[in-house]
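Records of this kind hold a single protein each, on a pair of labelled lines. Below, a sample record shows both lines together.
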Amino acid sequence: MHELRHILDVKKHQIEDRLDELFEDVRSAIDGAVACLAQRDPDYCRNLIENDVRLNDKRRLIEQDCLVAIASQQPVAHDLRDIVADMRIAVELERMGDYACDIAKSVLELDGGHLEALGLADLQSMSALCRRMLSDAQQARKTGDTALARQLAATDDALDDLLRRVVNSTLAAMRTDAAMVDNGSRLLWIAHNLERCGDRATNIAEQVVYRVEGVVEELD
C-alpha cells in the first residue's frame, strides 16, 4: 500500500509540474498576443500562431498522464478529484492559448489605420485584467485558496464591463467613419477573445473549489 501511495504521489507531482509549465506558456501566449496588438509585428504574430501547436501537445500529455494515473493507480477521494480537476484545467488553459492565437491572427488582418478611436485603451485594460485573472487562478490552484478562486468571479464582472465599453466605443467609431469598419470588426473579435479568456480563468477557479471542497459550484 505504501509503495502504491508513493507511485501515485510521483505521478501527481509530474502532472502538477506539467500543468505549471502550461500555465506559464499560456501566460506568455497572452502577453505575446497583447504585444502583437501593440507592435503589429507580422513575424511576432506568426511565431505566436505557430507555437500554439506546442501548447496543444502539452495539454495532451497532461491528459495522458491523468488517464494513466486513474487507470493504473485507481485513486480514490481527494486524489481522484485532484487528477480530474487538473485534467479539466489543462483543457481550459489550452483553449486560452487558442484565444491568444486567434488574437494574433486578427492582428495580422489589421490595416495600417490608427486604433485609438476604436477603444484600444480599454482593450489593453482587458488584456491586463485577463493576465491578472490567470495569475490568480494559478495561485489559487497551487495553494488551494478557494477564497481567491471565488474572487475571480468579481474580476470577471469587471472584464465584462470593459468589453461593453469596447463594443460601444468601437461601434460608435465605425458608425462615424466607414474607413474604421474593417479594423473595428477585428478589434471586436479580439475583445471577444479576451473576454473568453476571462471566462476560462473563472472555469479554472471552479475546478480549484472542486478540488478542495468536493463541490461543483458555478462562479458568476
About this structure: Residues 66 and 83 are 6 Å apart (CA to CA). The helical segments are 2-39, 42-73, 77-108, 120-143, 146-176, 181-213. The first helix runs from residue 2 to 39.
